[in-house]
Each structure stands twice: as C-alpha cells, then as structure tokens.
Amino acid sequence: MHAFIKAILAYDDKADVHGLLGRVSAYYGCVEAQGRGTLHCHMMIWIDGALNPNEIKERILSDLDGEFQKRLLAVLDDTIANCVPEDPGDIDVTVPSNSHHACSVRGPNLAPDDPRLGQARQKDLRNVVRKCQMHTHSRTCYKYWKGPPEPQECRFDLDESNYCAESTVDRETGELNLRCLDGLVNNYNPTMLEALRCNMDIKFIGSGPSAKAILYYVTDYITKSPLKAHVSFAALELAVRKLRESEAHLDAPLDTVAKAKALLQKCAYAMISHQELSSQQVASYLTDEEDHFSSHDFTHIYWPSFALSHFERHIEKEDPSPECDTRNETMAVEAAPDEPDDDTVPDLVDQDSDDESEDEDTDRIDLHVHNE
Description:
The structure is a single chain. By secondary structure, the chain is mainly α. 37% of the residues lie in helices and 7% in strands. α7 packs across α8. The longest helix is centred in the middle third of the chain and has 20 residues. This is Helitron helicase-like domain-containing protein.
C-alpha cells in the first residue's frame, strides 16, 4: 500500500507532483478482511482541482457546444476500463503469466529497447484481467434472493446484459453514464492492475446520486459489526447461561445493579472471545501493520455534555425548530389551566383501534444531506 500511495498516486503534500490520477490532495483507506480472511483496502481519493458533483452538473448543463462533456468522458474512458483486452495474437510473445497464475508473477520486462514490449504488456494485462476481474456467478451472488417470482439478479450488479457501447451524459439531469463493454468485468485501471496484480474496482464520484450512494455505503460500512448476527446471539446466550450458573452457587442472590454489571461484563467477554480472526488478520496485528491509511492526521476531541449543548444551541440559532424544543413543551404545560379530575378526563386512546405507530420501524435512521 505504501508503494501504491508513493509510486502510483504520487501523494506529496509538500511538492507539486502528479500521479496516475493527477495531483492527489487527500486519501483515506480502510483495511478489512473478507469472510474467508483475505485482506483488502477500501480507499477514497481526492484529486486537487477536481470539480464537485454540483459544479460538474452546472458545467454540463451550461456546455452548449459539448466540448466540456467530450473532454470529461475522454478522461474517464481513458482511466476506467471494464473489458478483457484483445489478444495481440503474436505466438512468439511470451510472458510469465502465460504459464503461471497472473497474481503470482511479475509482468514482462519493461526494457524500452524491446520492440515487442507493447504486445507483451497487452498479453500480460489480458491474463491479469481474466484471472482477477472476470466475475463468475455463484450462490453468494444470490444469497439475498427471496425466490420466485422475484427476478434472480446478481447482488454485485454484474450481468452479461449490462452492456453500453459508449459513455453518455444526460443533458437534462447532468448524470454521467459510463460505457460498459463487458458486463461481467469489474471496473479497473489498466496501469494500476498491471502493477498491483490483484482484484480491484474503481469508481468516479462525479454526480449527485453517486456521491449520495458512496456516502451511504461508507457510513453503513464503517458502522457494521464485525461479528455475524448468529455468533453475537450465541455469545450473549452463553453469557446469560454462565451468569445463572454462577449465581446458583452464591449464598445470597445478587441485587439488580450487581447482576446487571456482571451480565454486561460477561457479555463483553463472551463477544470478544467469539470474534473470528483469520490468519492474515492475526499476522497483520502481530507485525504491527496498519489497519488504515490516511494522508491527514486527526485528533480525538472529548465531547462532553456541555459542548453538545452549545452545539445544539448553535444549530437551533441557525435553523430554528420550535416543534423540537422541549422547553416550549414545559412552558406550555406550566401555562395550561388546572387539569380536571380523573373521572372527567376523556379517554383519548381507543384501545380497540389499530395504532399504526406500533407497526412503524423505530430502528431506522434517515439521513438528509444538503449541498450548499
């Protein structure tokens, strides 16, 4: 990863240097393990001088001659590929990936005096794409499929029918639709793939829907539990059972507070002990390898209750919401006339009616993102 950041991205906050994607102003990557233990990195990269989604949309809508659209799509088509390169067809060109797995060997010798260097690189890239980027459907693709009559669709959105001959721009909405020459090939950058020699995916965040989708993906991804649901419940059940067994041997039962503390402690220990770690993760921790990569340093800030109250008052000042102010409710109660006796208070709750609020999903969080 350090070689990727230094050589391919060419990030340097003290020098005006450009990498494969341009001058990188910031990056952040998080390392995680798949279900089978393979380590991989999710990274977001910010390009210096790049337009944000709103600016791109404005430029597209105001681009009467289409010159900006042509230049933008040309850059994206040159950066992102999603097809298997053609075979150069020269049987005399041999590369190590012909006889070995493409990920286990290096590419061809990049000696500039080799007249067949271009053909060798194309053949090697073809081998890497076929080994690393080609998707084959399996049961994992349809694990969320509920069965007929629901259509059976790959959850990775990879299908032979996903074909688009050329990149286009919607002049009314400013939405970018990049070309897709092979629906079963993940997006890749040829130079990156040739150097990294592993599966990769690359996406350009250049429209509002894409930005919102990546925002949702990141927030959902970083908050998901590393434990599977069935493992978590099994650990909790084990903790409760052990607490009951230990309490049975005591002369006097624990009080409510002590029992609650003991239960929380045993639950924490049980969930930690049941966490599954792959050998790659263990080796990474023991060798003190990074679990994230960042171009900037961040400082943890203690956020006590008084700071939170100041923040809330600032938000209320900038965007007043009287209906959410509990102080108004208190004042209204205090200013209300004396309540009548209990026997004269009408029953405002119909016990026989269906209360729709009981059926609402209370475990849902709605995010509203506003772009200035």
